[in-house]
Amino acid sequence: MAVMAAPLMDRYPAISDLEARAKKRVPHFSWEYLDSGTGADQAVQRNADALGEITLVPQLLKGKFDPAVETELFGITYTAPIGIAPVGLTGLIWPGADAALAAAAADRRIPYCMSTVSTTSPEVAGPAADGMGWFQLYPPREADMRKDLIDRAQASGFTTLVVTADVPARSRRERQVKAQIRVPPKIGPKLIAQSAINPSWSMGVLKNGLPRFRTLEKYVDKATMQHIAGFVGASLGGTLSYDYLSDVRKEWRGPLVVKGILDPDDAERCLERGADAIWVSNHGGRQLDGSIAAIHALPAILERIDGRVPVIFDSGIRSGLDVARALAMGADFVFCGRAFLFGVAALGANGAGHAYDVLADELVNVMAQTGCRHIADLPLRLNP
Length: 384
Fold this sequence. Notes:
single chain; alpha/beta; 8-stranded parallel sheet; two-stranded antiparallel ribbon; 18 helices; globular
């Protein structure tokens, strides 16, 4: 008689379990791309340490209740205030990752924010996300290209546009340099050896092909990774200004979010230019190693915004407890990137959904443990 495998939650009850399995299943260069920050990775650690300092005070004897985590944002009701943050070059981390992320968002009814430099196209990811898709815009330098990207995202069913502000220049990301991460990948003995000892990843590449910036292929004469990689460096980023943001506001008809804000004055100026939400983030510690922890930037921005628009948070989220901590500090919604990619790399197509299940189950448990029936109750339990 065959022995049935244990349910996923029994085998991988924490994001750290998915992280450990993912590290064993992907080549070293893929892992370095996903896991690394920049510099000495101090900003990555600072994010985690700052979240870990936040404690909650349980209030008990509340009787029986089921915590409610459904959250409305921009007129859409999501199953929980948990979203999939944009990650570039997802196909390098795990072949077919984009499809898995979009499918998980559609199935769990949570937002999936697709990056301009992911390895799918809006025309594929938008319908697959089934109304749960957000599109992250790396600012093109050419206005015509920007307008076309925005139109493509709108036509593909993406509901919300996220303009990334926190990549004014390329980050150094020394671990990625040492791992020889290049676009296109340099096929040599080192890459072949790393791929050979990770057969599941290699078989996925054979099935899905080498990762490609499919969104951007339309704008390049020769749709090779080498030409597109050069195009990305020459055509995206380094242009964002408040006037540019005003132009984007005129071209996008739905909710507009500005991502990567850490300064209250920046947040205020974004609102003046038509932003419908502020996304507090230090890019997961991947841009500036000396950056303030994102969670430490959140209170001042919340004070300045004063409830006028939602405030979204990411950076350092590795558990449902971390989600609860960010919500307790006043965030309206929480996104995470690495946690979902750990899930995909660990478990393939089912991994992103399981990562969500872990985060949501932990969030509900934290609320039960602290006597919170609703998300709005969490800030009242913050330990000063």
